[in-house]
Amino acid sequence: MSEGAGQLGAASVPRLGRGVRLQHDQVRGVWLLLAPERMLELDDISHAIVSRIDGKASLGAIADDLARTFAADRDVILADVTELVGELTAKRIIVV
Amino acid sequence: MSDGRANSTDPGPPSALLAELTHRCPLRCPYCSNPLELERRSDELATADWMRVFDEAVGLGIRHVHLSGGEPTARGDIADLIAHARKAGLYTNLITSGVLMNEGRLDALIDAGLDHLQLSIQDIDGASADRIAGLEGAHAKKLELSRQVKARGIGFTVNAVIHRHNIHNLERMIDFALEMDAGRLEVAHVQYYGWALKNRAALIPTRAALDAATRIVAEAAERLKGRLAFDYVVPDYYARYPKPCMGGWARTGLNVTPSGKVLPCHAAETIAGLEFDNVRERSLADIWSSSPTFLAFRGTGWMEEPCRGCERAEVDWGGCRCQAFAFTGRATATDPACSLSSLHADMVAIAERESAAASPAFAYRQF
């Protein structure tokens, strides 16, 4: 049952891992991913991606949405989304 | 985040608060991390005090609160405390023995905003687990709670404290964590302070048993990557270098006792001569930045040789101040867990002698 960035594709549907929560930090004015014993600060691009992860949308659908919202190239965005989700999957912050 | 300033005596804000809500607990584990002098219920902070502490923690930059004890659910206001902490913006982790929980209480805590639950197990054999916990029926309650947590889907860590009476069951503990869908397993070899130090001869494993356990964890961590995360705490008596205790004195987190005393680590009261500020009198921010006790061993300026000038001074921060004090009577000494300490050979000899002899009876934790 090896799951990892290697198997991610446009049809993969990511969701936040158990015990992981996205939160706006009012003290520092940034978005955080909070997890057991860990915390990740998100930049604007990462936040745009992570905030669209709801356990229903596929990576492809997320890329479509981002491409429309930011009028950007869909394939470039899909590559970025896949890369970030791959990194967070390895850390168990996101599960696919 | 604080890495960029790790050389200075300013570590930046702490990231975690260990809130020891009470020292009361139905369990009597002989390695309890609470001090030998347990604090009484009559001295415990009120609900409003804790709520203010959580607000101050958020203002200071803390993101994680570990609601601990004793048994934190022994407090009737635990759901209110979780709700307040969560609303303030903290990630809430309940560190529990599970024996006071039931399905209704679990749901109430989850409704209040509980993010994560960490459950201790004493062993995997029920009879042995109950004997170690000093409470009949404890293990069965833990199994029940594990199944309930699994069904709810909140974050879940299993914490197994390891010693000579359960180290042979490590593989079955890993299987248990998998079966319960835990995301993390803490394999924590007993650290010898307080109650555990008193019971050291009954707890410390042989070096061979430790090495076998370390191999099992390394193999499982690799095999289960992406599925079960391991947090492995080694018994430093057999180590070559000491553990960077607490990531360095007063660098990453702080601990508030049931009566409101603020400590850099839960064992800090074992060091004679330190005075501890109380949240009833000073703010957390003030204590973090300028309490003499927090400044006492922060950074590297306090170090003696061989720590002073050692290339590992900012890797392990001289190890543990409490252990240094316990062995030498001086908290500025090098932790004898370090192979560069002149006392290291004595420490290893103690571990080898005690682990080879028959285990004495437990001196159970008691008020």
Helix content of chain A: 25-40%
Structural Rg of chain B: 20 Å
Count of helix runs of chain A: 3
Helix/strand/pairing category of chain A: alpha+beta
Rounded mean pLDDT score of chain B? 95
What is the chains' assembly state? heterodimer
Helix coverage percent of chain B: 25-40%
The most extensive interface, with participating residues per chain, is: A-B, 24 and 25 residues
DSSP, total strands of chain A:
5
Number of β-strand runs of chain B: 9
Tell me about this structure.
- Chain A is of the alpha+beta class and 96 residues long.
- In chain A, 38% of the residues lie in helices and 21% in strands.
- Chain A has a 3-stranded antiparallel β-sheet. In chain A, strands 1-5 form a two-stranded antiparallel ribbon.
- In chain A, strand 2 and strand 3 form a beta hairpin.
- In chain A, helix 2 crosses helix 3.
- In chain A, 26% of the residues are buried.
- With 367 residues, chain B is α/β, with parallel strands linked by helices.
- A 9-stranded mixed β-sheet of chain B has the order 7-6-5-4-3-2-1-8-9.
- The longest helix of chain B is centred in the middle third of the chain and has 17 residues.
- At the A-B interface, strand 2 and strand 3 of A face strand 5 of B.
Would you kindly provide a brief summary of this structure?
The complex is a heterodimer of chains A (96) and B (367). Chain A has 96 residues and is an alpha+beta fold.
Would you spell out the secondary-structure blueprint of this structure?
The complex is a heterodimer of chains A (96) and B (367).
Chain A: E1 15-16, E2 21-25, E3 30-35, E4 38-42, H1 44-50, H2 59-70, H3 74-90, E5 94-95
Antiparallel strand pairs in A: 1-5, 2-3, 3-4
Helix pairs in contact in A: 2-3
Chain B: E1 16-20, H1 47-60, E2 64-68, H2 78-88, E3 91-96, H3 103-112, E4 116-121, H4 126-133, H5 138-152, E5 155-162, H6 170-179, E6 184-189, H7 194-198, H8 200-203, H9 207-223, E7 229-233, E8 253-256, E9 262-263, H10 284-290, H11 292-296, H12 313-316, H13 321-328, H14 344-356
Parallel strand pairs in B: 1-2, 1-8, 2-3, 3-4, 4-5, 5-6, 6-7
Antiparallel strand pairs in B: 8-9
Helix pairs in contact in B: 1-2, 2-3
